[in-house]
Amino acid sequence: MSQLNPGLTAPAPAGNPVKVISAPPEDLQHVNDDAAAARNLTAIRIRGQLAELDAERQPS
């Protein structure tokens, strides 16, 4: 993710060259939108799993 955000810097893993994406931010907006959608779906899944655990813990 640091490759898309020039404000974040991290050392490159040894032996693996890092390909820097150079494109105007508006061209990469779909990447940001996809990442946000993935985070949202992950949060929904986690909430669902936590709800299932809570339901299992409730005495019948």
Q: Overview of this structure, please?
A:
By secondary structure, this protein is mainly α. It has a domain of 34 residues. Helix content is 48%, strand content 0%. The longest helix has 29 residues. It is elongated.
List the helices and strands and how they pair.
Blueprint lengths: L28 H29 L3
Give the proportion of residues in helices. Answer: 40-55%
Number of strands: 0
Supply the helix-strand structural class: mainly alpha
List the uncertain runs. none
Which descriptor suits the 3D outline? elongated
Number of helices: 1
Strand/helix succession: H
Oligomeric nature of the chains: single chain
Q: Give the overall pLDDT as a whole number.
A: 81
What does the radius of gyration come to?
Answer: 19 Å
Report the biggest beta sheet as strand number plus sense, adding barrel if it closes. none
Gap between N and C termini: 45 Å
- Share of residues in strands: under 5%
Region (Disordered): 1-22
Key descriptive features of the protein:
1 helix, 60 residues, mainly alpha
Brief sketch in words of this structure:
The protein is 48% helix and 0% strand. With 60 residues, the chain is mainly α. The longest helix is centred in the C-terminal third of the chain and has 29 residues, at 29-57.
